[in-house]
Design a protein that fits this description.
It is a multi-pass membrane protein. This is ATPase cation transporting 13A2. The protein is of the alpha+beta class. Helices cover 41% and strands 19% of the residues. The chain is globular. The two termini are 27 Å apart.
């Protein structure tokens, strides 16, 4: 969700701290509170910071809100120096209000600002000065608007521009007006800050993890654990250095991708063309685009000429797009609805054609307000990941903190009874906290994700959001685009069928065999194909269509006057003509106007003229349903629906064509000048021409991947802009719909002046007879999942608006979503997420960008290595990357669990060892801590995550909850086994005939070496290795342990080393580790045997927990409903045998309501 709103629509803040100001956007909101500095409070905070030795400043750094409340008082926004912003995710940000002096009277030049409401007027030394008040948040500039009583995004100044306004800017801005606008909007830069190392070091060190690490090191130094403290300090410095290097490297990479400065030519209001830096551009500037194109540094509306644009960096779509001039008129302008007339920042303009003049565009957005700026901002400031594993991690650390607190109380009692000094009591107690809560735990659990990211990169899958790798392991539903994703990108022309009032003619398999006429001309010219260095370039469908006619494409050379005069003086964009011009093959036609394809409109059109400018015709091509609706009813054949259903059911891509004559004397001139509402006038009252059928083959990998997902109980759905029958055919071909499964179509209609909204479910094929109608639903529901719903975009919109209670049920059973507009795809993903699905989305084009970013896991099939269209980008051209991504996600999630449990058990093992030894008035030696922490645990944790994913997807997904009964239960049981093992070693030692009690008059390291310490340390060293084996899960989501040969070799080496230390430590190792030299070999073998028994018991406990032995405890509380809404709803639907009611027309007051509580 985008956290930036367009404007603030609320009242200004009140003086009390309670009320908040809402800054509302289209789909999100922020809360803004104003504060003013209070001098005496500031000085009190400075004094408190000095007295606390800077601890107060650290607290303020962690909680900026406390800093604001302590130093400031609440005030209206109009008077605020400091703003406290709460975004839509509940995160708080502190922003400083900035001011900038402006020339007196200059604001009056901007008529859009309405009475100078963007500035304050202050009186300094009896001189009035105009101040612009603003703040910067996530790169965006928010300016104070007095009339609105709030801070608004600077883009609010131009959000109401109309097409007419944009065309009026062709004359250019004056230097003064341009200067004023620059102060309002700021420089045209997508500035990704790269912080200096000193600042990064300061911020990194103040991270709670490193603060705790610094506290631990200080404590160890005070306790004279010099060697261990120095080693940890060196490791921490090394870790910080690597972290800072990586952060800075990523920042530099992102800045190089985002920041771009070039020279552009703009037009001034004086008519002079001036070359300026792109930093100087402001909304309203008129930019002259050179014929050779350029890399665009802003968003701009194209007003004259045509541009061929590569938008792969933003959308992942590798096919260049032809941009056409924005029509004139009074209608509002929006870059989203006018994408075919908008040039986006960061896209590469390959070619610009002005028809004898330069292409002209007007800047509409700059900096972070551009499409590229918005995407870069989403990378810099990602929305918080709502994933249970990450939430439970923090809760589990609190649980360990509670364990440390209880252990500290016990240690204080034991130490007090041992008559230690107060200083040592404090040191020993605090030392126990650093043991129970491992400071390296947050860093350790990311190693699995790092290894998974590296493996994915080797497979050609690039990730810009590593935390989402773990989320891949919990995906429960994957949505796929159709064309270019499930099916081949290219299409083959299957045939043409002309139609009219008399009906359809015979099928013509090769369009080049058509007789000369409107149908052949329409196929040859109704497209946006262009030439680049003599080679046709454009949409693959249109390329195949033009190629099938046998006609050639010619574009004007130089200023194009020759072609213009040949075709009646009209400005010619392109000429299409047969290879040999004769009456049998047809005559050349010139394209004088293009209305490009729009996903929302589902159509495109062109206007053509013949030689001499005569016979002007408008041709339209688009979805059959849309085209038929724009044609005169008498020209549409009666067999239209049956033929369309027949072709679509065969999996063919069906397009319809239509045409109409254009009055060249009255209409053509205004059409060429892009006047509105000329497109609407051109695209109505048309004559239906016929169908064009194209065969879109399913990719050979698609069926196999869908089958893999199906066997793994992962639901798949198709979301496409194609015809619903074509989509159903593809769904059957690739296995989304089984051979024996039924398809039920959902048809919802919005209300009209004469009728209520309706909802109807109909079975595929002929409608059931009256006797069958009551039987079919019951049979369907007896088997649970042997039917699928299919719905189109219009029905989906009506369902959302008028049948919201039915929407969750339809979403639960729907597999095919057809004729979906780009915004509907995004809405669908969000609605599925409301049902608690973890949604994945795989697509390859610009129409999928919104859905890719909204999904929990978005996969873009693109050749770009770092497309910002989605978190994941795959270079493979098929969906085989999806199972791989899910397997890696599951492997990473299981590895993160293993590492979390291992690090927790490591701290609990050491925690228990210290408490046991405290009880007998001794402790672990410095080098014993170092050996366990550094040479055993750290090395094992680093290589534990290297195991790769399993070769197949298991039907059961891994858990994401650290607080689940199996996790907490196994930790509790293993901790019990650890304690019993260490106590057994201690009691076995004290029961020996040769046992000599330690000196009871001293405590701690003064008692080293001793028998108790050596026996407990020896067994605990084995336990670190044992737990590494026990918690490292293999089947079913990871490869078996022996595939991770580095980890296996390290286990063998550490086990051999530990066994050597127990059996034959030698004088050097024994002296350095302060080990007691036991002479009884049978006793030492007994210690090894206890360790082996400890391993067998822990391994058996882990196996039993995995088998679900702890589930018997759940029976005591009774069976609970799933927390996931889609699972609860599925149970209710399975118990409702009469839903969906087939062939019954339902109204909003009649449908069956199924509630999920």
């Amino acid at each position: 969700m985008d956290v930036r709103g367009n404007a603030a629509e609320s009242q200004s803040a009140r003086a009390s701290p309670g009320p908040r100001d809402h800054v509302l956007g289209p789909d999100s909101h922020m809360y803004v509170q104003g504060y003013k500095w209070v001098r005496w409070r500031v000085w009190c905070c400075r004094l408190a910071a000095a007295l606390s030795l800077g601890l107060l400043l650290i607290v303020f750094h962690w909680q900026p809100r406390l800093a604001v409340l302590a130093r400031c008082r609440s005030c209206p926004l109009a008077l605020a120096d400091i703003l406290l912003i709460t975004d839509s995710f509940g995160r708080r940000h502190v922003m400083k209000v900035l001011t900038e002096e402006m020339e007196h009277g200059s604001v009056d030049l901007l008529g859009e600002l309405e009475d100078n409401d963007c500035r304050d007027t202050v009186q300094l030394h009896k001189e009035e000065k105009t101040l612009l008040r603003y703040y910067l948040f996530e790169g965006l500039r928010y300016i104070w608007l007095a009339r609105k009583g709030s801070f608004c995004r600077a883009s609010v100044l131009n959000e109401n521009w109309t097409r007419k306004d944009l065309h009026s800017f062709q004359k250019g801005l004056s230097p003064l007006e341009q200067s004023l606008r620059k102060r309002m909007y700021g420089p045209n830069l997508i500035d990704v800050p790269v912080k200096p190392y000193v600042q990064m070091l300061f911020e990194e060190v103040l991270n709670p993890f490193y603060v705790f690490q610094a506290f631990s090191i200080t404590l160890w130094l005070v306790d004279k654990y010099y060697f261990y403290a120095i080693c940890i300090f060196i490791i921490s410095i090394f870790s910080i250095g690597i972290s800072l290097h990586e952060i800075r490297k990523q920042s530099i990479t992102l800045r190089n991708m985002a920041q771009f400065v070039t020279n552009v030519t703009i037009r001034r209001n004086s008519g002079v063309e001036e070359c300026v830096s792109s930093e100087e551009l402001v909304p309203g500037d008129c930019v002259i685009i050179p014929p050779e194109g350029l890399l665009l540094p802003c968003d701009a509306a194209l007003l004259a000429g045509e541009c061929l644009v590569n938008e792969s960096m933003l959308t992942g779509e590798s096919v260049p797009v032809l941009k056409t001039p924005l029509p004139t008129g009074d209608g509002g302008y929006s870059s989203e609805t006018e994408r075919r007339h908008t040039l986006f920042c960061g896209t590469h303009l390959i070619l610009a054609k002005g028809g004898g003049a330069s292409a002209v565009a007007v800047v509409t957005s700059t900096g972070f307000f551009t499409a590229k700026g918005s995407l870069v901002s989403s990378i810099m400031h990602p929305q918080p990941t709502d994933f249970r594993f990450y939430k439970d991690s923090a809760k589990f650390l609190l649980l360990l903190g509670f364990v440390a607190f209880m252990g500290t109380i016990y240690s204080i009692v034991v130490l007090f009874k041992s008559n230690v000094t107060w200083w040592e009591l404090v040191i020993r107690s605090l030392d126990l906290v650093t043991i129970a809560v491992p400071p390296a735990l947050p860093a350790a659990i990311t190693t699995g994700t790092i290894h998974a990211q590296r493996r994915l990169k080797k497979q050609g899958i690039f990730c810009v959001s590593p935390p989402r790798i773990n989320i891949c392991g919990k995906i429960s539903l994957f949505c796929f685009d159709k064309t270019g994703t499930l099916t081949e990108e290219g299409l083959d022309v299957w045939g043409v069928m002309e139609g009219g009032a008399a009906g359809f003619s015979e099928l013509v398999p090769d369009p080049s065999l058509l007789a000369p006429g409107p149908m052949l001309s329409g196929l040859a010219c109704c497209h946006t194909v262009t030439l680049l260095q003599g080679q046709p370039l454009g949409d693959p469908l249109e390329l195949k269509m033009v190629e099938s006619t046998g006609w050639t494409l010619q574009e004007p050379e130089g200023n194009g006057d020759a072609l213009d005069s040949e075709f009646g003086g009209h400005r010619v964009l392109a000429v299409v003509k047969p290879l040999s011009q004769s009456t049998s093959t047809g005559q050349a036609v010139a394209i004088v106007r293009r209305f490009p394809f729009s996903s929302a409109l589902q159509r495109m059109s062109v206007v053509t003229v013949a030689h001499g400018g005569h016979s002007a015709l408008a041709f339209l091509k688009g979805s059959p349903e849309m085209v038929a609706g724009l044609c005169r009813a008498e020209t549409v054949p009666q067999q239209f629906s049956s033929k369309l259903r027949s072709f679509s059911s065969e999996g063919l891509r069906v397009l319809a064509l239509a045409c109409k004559p254009v009055d060249e004397r009255t209409d053509l001139g205004t059409i060429e000048r892009c006047c509105l509402p000329r497109r609407e006038e051109v695209e109505k009252e048309l004559q239906f021409l016929g169908f064009l059928m194209l065969k879109n083959l399913v990719k050979p990998e698609s069926a196999g991947v869908i089958n893999v997902l199906r066997l793994a109980n992962l639901r798949s759905a198709m979301v496409t802009g194609d015809n619903i029958l074509t989509a159903v055919n593809v769904a059957k071909t690739c296995g989304m719909v089984g051979v024996d499964e039924k398809v039920i179509f959902v048809n919802a209609t919005p209300p009209t002046a004469q009728s209520m909204p309706t909802l109807e479910f109909s079975l595929e094929g002929d409608r059931a007879t009256a006797g069958q109608t009551a039987i079919v639903p019951q049979r369907l529901y007896q088997n649970g999942f042997d039917y699928h719903l299919a719905i189109n975009g219009k029905s989906f919109a009506a369902l959302c608006n008028h049948f919201p209670e039915c929407l969750p049920k339809v979403l639960l059973r729907a597999t095919v979503f057809a004729r979906m507009a780009p915004d509907q795809k995004t809405q669908l993903v969000k609605e599925l997420q409301k049902l608690n699905y973890r949604v994945g989305m795989c697509g390859d084009g610009a129409n999928d960008c919104g859905a890719l970013r909204a999904a929990d896991v978005g996969v873009s099939l693109s050749e770009a290595e770092a497309s910002v269209a989605s978190p994941f980008t795959s270079k493979t051209e098929d969906i085989s990357c999806v199972p791989l991504l899910i397997r890696e996600g599951r492997c990473s999630l299981v590895t993160s669990f293993s590492l979390f449990r291992y690090m927790s058990l490591y701290s609990l093992i050491q925690f228990c060892s210290v408490l046991v030894l405290y009880t007998v008035r001794t402790t672990l030696a410095d080098l014993q801590f170092l050996f366990c922490d550094l040479f055993v645990v750290t090395l094992l944790a680093i290589v534990m995550g290297r195991g790769g994913p399993s070769g197949e997807l298991h039907p059961h997904r891994p858990s994401a909850s650290l607080l689940a009964l199996p996790v907490l239960g196994s930790l509790l049981l293993h901790t019990g086994m650890v304690v019993l093992g260490q106590l057994a070693a201690l009691f076995i030692t004290t029961s020996q005939d040769w046992y000599v009690p330690l000196n009871s008059t001293v405590f701690g390291v003064a008692n080293l070496p001793n028998m108790e310490n050596t026996s407990v340390f020896s067994l605990s060293a084995f336990q670190y290795i044992i737990m590494a084996v026990v918690v490292t899960k293999g089947y079913p989501h990871k490869k078996p342990l022996f595939y991770n040969w580095i980890f296996l070799c390290l286990l063998i080496v550490l086990f051999a080393l530990t066994t050597w230390l127990v059996l034959y430590p030698g004088p050097f190792a024994g002296h350095q580790l302060q080990l007691h030299n036991f002479l009884d070999m049978d006793f030492k073998m007994l210690l090894v045997a206890v360790a082996a028994l400890n391993f067998l018991v822990c391994f058996l406990v882990e196996v039993l927990v995995d088998k679900g032995i702890l589930n018997c405890l759940r029976s005591l509380r009774g069976r609970r409903q799933s927390k996931k809404q889609y699972k609860r709803l599925n149970v209710l639907l399975c118990e409702s045998p009469l839903w969906p009611p087939l062939n019954e027309t339902m109204s909003p007051t009649e449908h069956t309501v199924i509630h999920c509580s």
